[in-house]
Amino acid sequence: MVGWERERRKGRVGGILVLAGGVICVCLAGSGCSGRGAAADGAGGGDPVAVLHRAADRLVAAGSAKARTAMEMASGGTRVTIRGEGVYDFEGRLGRLKVRLPQDPAGSSEHRPITELLAPGALFMKNRGAGVPDDKWVRVETASLSDGNLVTGGATDPFAAAEVLRGTRTATYVGRTEVAGTAVRHYRGTADLARAARGASDGNRQALAAAAEGFATAEVPFDAYLDDEGRIRKVRHRFSFANGREEGIVAVASTTLLYDFGAAVRVRLPKDRDIYAGKIAAEPGEPGEPGEPGEPAEAAGEASGGGAGGKN
What we know:
Layout: E1 5-6, H1 21-26, H2 48-53, H3 55-62, E2 64-75, E3 78-89, E4 94-100, E5 114-119, E6 122-126, E7 137-141, H4 158-164, E8 168-179, E9 182-192, H5 193-199, H6 202-214, E10 219-226, E11 232-242, E12 249-259, E13 267-268, E14 279-281, E15 298-300
Antiparallel strand pairs: 1-13, 2-3, 2-12, 3-4, 4-5, 5-6, 6-7, 8-9, 9-10, 10-11, 11-12, 14-15
Helix pairs in contact: 5-6
């Protein structure tokens, strides 16, 4: 497979999103919509559930953005946080993140950051696992993961995070606030992963369906912060899964922050010869291995015909 480069430049986004006149007027209108006076407070279209269902589409229209991620895992009295930063092309469904693992419990050493490339149906990782050569990538089919890669990579794919909201069943409009200096509308609700999978894009449909089966519950509580154009500026999901050990249920809070819409995105997927086909082993403090989110174990990282989403 030949790697695919996709590049987006600032300035393309202006004017793409145009709010309907009715949406603007509803900010000034009286009550009558669900969600605790959502219309009167300018919730962006009335019904909070409908607004959240459209949030992923607003990101596609915006084109691209920079992203910061944080994943907090709590199990057996231990809490760790994994942080990431990068860019994402929502139209091309391609992204690049640098994920930083927590220090060892003694705080005496620091892991190398993991470089992650996100593509429809696939996750590529460099510096991932003991025994993987420095110049090789590990490729994982996201549909094969019991969490659909909402947790395994240590960072939730930004577009998958948005598409979880397609499964929103209940939501309320909390009020207006700010995220990183941008005025936003705060929504709180619960999404159903099975429902989200049915409405998701082709690249996320199977992965979200796998998560609906693999998590302890398919219901995902969330807090979402949307700007006046309906774009997600921040979303926080709370997942839970059974890791098969004495700790029982592992609680995960995954936060995605989006900013600088229209940022340049350049992602080149690895060629077949650059993908490692041996065995990998998790190191202390790393996110979980394929199929077992948050649980260090050995797993096979095998090439499977190149990167999903690439072009020959």
